[in-house]
Amino acid sequence: MSDEDLLVREAGGVRWITLHRPDAGNALTPDQRDRLIDLLADASARVEVRAVVLTATGRHFCTGADLRAQRPGPERPAGAPEKVVGDVARMLHTGSQRLVSAVLDCEKPVLAAVNGTAAGIGAHLALACDLVIAAEGARFIEVFVRRGLVPDGGGAWLLPRLVGLQRAKELVFLGDALDAAAAERLGLVNRVVPAEELEAVAGEWAARLAAGPTRALGLAKSLLNRSLDSDRATAFREEALAQELNMTTRDANEGVRSFVERRDPEYLGW
Q1: Is the dihedral of CA 58, 59, 62, 64 positive or negative?
Q2: pLDDT tens digit string along 57-74?
């Protein structure tokens, strides 16, 4: 992968990650995918990174996986088929599923600034983010059915949690393109803005996130992401543990002090 295929910059505590293969519709190569996973894990570990923005250049956000750039498999013994049972499942687990998990598990807030078409794993990459801002011309497409495929990259897990079971089935079964306004009405998108304002609005939101109590945001993200998979007793125990952990942080104590002293808090991220 060329360094130019994935652009990375940091400013004001925000890590901007930009897909940059506009001539290929920003279709993801395996190398790009692995680099994205590494960058998200690194964002969790770095104290100076307090929010992440995922975006892209050109007319598309991400049109899916680049099937022309797949890595060759291991050598097979003579007479063995090209694929054996387990190969496809392993490829998904180590590929698209690992990418979506990296977004969901990142300890920092991840914001998608969707500049254009997000299809297949590109749609799931955006929808796994904590907040989604879309340009007016953006589209979201569950393209799998058009190719006779089952959704991957966690789509069948993400969509019902975002829009409900019946709407998720409509999107997956029909594969129709969903424009930004419709995506906002369904709850897939937080905000739709004119294309020329996308970067500025994403920057404003990311700056607010980066100025927030980073540890509290990370713990809240974990609680919210697990909420629909937990029974009430488990959710309440995890909430209490998150509060216990958070109250050991400098920012939580700063928040309480600033309230008592009637001033704005100054959060540092730890």
Answers
A1: negative
A2: 999 999 999 988 777 777
